[in-house]
Write a structure and sequence with these properties.
Residues 163-185 are annotated as: Disordered. Residues 163-172 have a biased composition (Polar residues). By secondary structure, this protein is mainly beta. The chain has one domain (55-223): Beta Barrel (Lipocalin), CATH 2.40.128. Helix content is 13%, strand content 39%. It is built from four helices and twelve strands, in the order αββαβααβββββββββ. The longest helix has 9 residues, at 87-95. The radius of gyration is 17 Å and the shape is globular.
Length: 224
C-alpha cells in the first residue's frame, strides 16, 4: 500500500551529475536518475528531496552494529556469480561473517558513517575492510581492489546517495546509493523492518554491451 511519501519519479538514463551542482542541497536519488540536457548538452538535476522524505529519513535510526543473517539472504549466490565470481568463491563470500557499524556523521541526521567488517579469507580474522561516509549527493569512493562487487583491480567508484520512499520500510523510506563501478551499475537500498532488522536490497545492472539482465539480491542484518 502507498505510505503517503512521494519519493520516486520517472526513471531516465543514468547520468552522473558533478558534485558542485548539488552543494548545500538534498537531492533524491530518483531525481538524480531523472536528468535533462540544456542547449549546451550539460546534464542538469531537478526536484530536491521532498520534505516528507527528509522528515521520515530523520526518524530512520540505523545506529549500532548490524550482523548479516547469512541464512536469510535471498539470491546472493547468483548475484555474486554475476559479478564474475566462481560458485565456490561466491559461496565463501555469502557465508563469511559480515557486519556493519552505523553512526550519524556530524549534525546532519541524513548522513551516516559506516564501518564494514568481514572475514579475511587469508587470515580468517574478522577485520574492518572499509569505512565510508555516505554524504548526500554525488561522491567518489576510491578502492584498493579485491572487491566482491567492484572488481579485482583498484579504481574509483562514482556514487550518488539519497533517500526514497519504500513501502516495506517501518519508517516509509530507504537509504539509497547508486554506484557506477568498473563492472557495471549498482543500486543499494537499505531500510528498517522493525527496530531489530535492516534489509539491504542490491540490484546489479551489467554494462550496456552485456546481454545479461539486471539481477537483485537481498541481505538481512540483525541489530546487536
Amino acid at each position: 500500500s502507498d505510505n503517503g511519501l512521494s519519493g520516486r519519479y520517472c526513471l531516465a538514463q543514468n547520468v552522473w551529475q558533478p558534485t558542485e551542482h548539488m552543494s548545500n542541497r538534498r537531492w533524491s536519488v530518483s531525481s538524480m536518475r531523472s536528468v535533462s540536457s540544456d542547449e549546451d548538452g550539460q546534464v542538469g538535476l531537478s526536484t530536491p528531496l521532498d520534505p516528507a522524505i527528509v522528515s521520515a529519513a530523520g526518524r530512520t535510526d540505523f545506529s549500532g552494529t548490524w550482523v548479516r543473517d547469512n541464512g536469510a539472504s535471498e539470491g546472493l549466490l547468483p548475484y555474486l556469480i554475476a559479478h564474475g565470481h566462481t560458485a565456490a568463491k561466491a559461496e565463501q563470500n555469502a557465508e563469511r561473517v559480515y557486519q556493519q557499524t552505523w553512526k550519524q556523521a556530524g549534525e546532519d541526521p541524513l548522513v551516516w558513517t559506516v564501518a564494514t567488517e568481514a572475514t579475511n579469507h587469508t587470515s580468517g580474522a574478522v577485520e574492518i575492510s572499509r569505512v565510508i561516509e555516505y554524504v548526500m549527493g554525488a561522491w567518489d569512493e576510491p578502492f584498493k581492489g579485491g572487491s566482491s562487487l567492484f572488481g579485482e583491480s583498484p579504481g574509483v567508484v562514482r556514487r550518488q546517495t539519497g533517500w526514497e520512499s519504500q513501502n516495506e520500510s517501518s519508517t516509509g523510506v530507504a537509504h539509497v546509493t547508486m554506484s557506477e563501478t568498473p563492472l557495471g551499475r549498482e543500486e543499494t537500498r537499505r531500510w528498517l523492518e522493525g527496530e531489530k532488522q535492516m534489509v539491504c536490497q542490491r540490484t546489479y545492472t551489467p554494462p550496456p554491451l552485456s546481454t545479461e539482465p539486471p539481477i537483485t539480491a537481498i541481505e538481512r542484518f540483525l541489530r546487536q
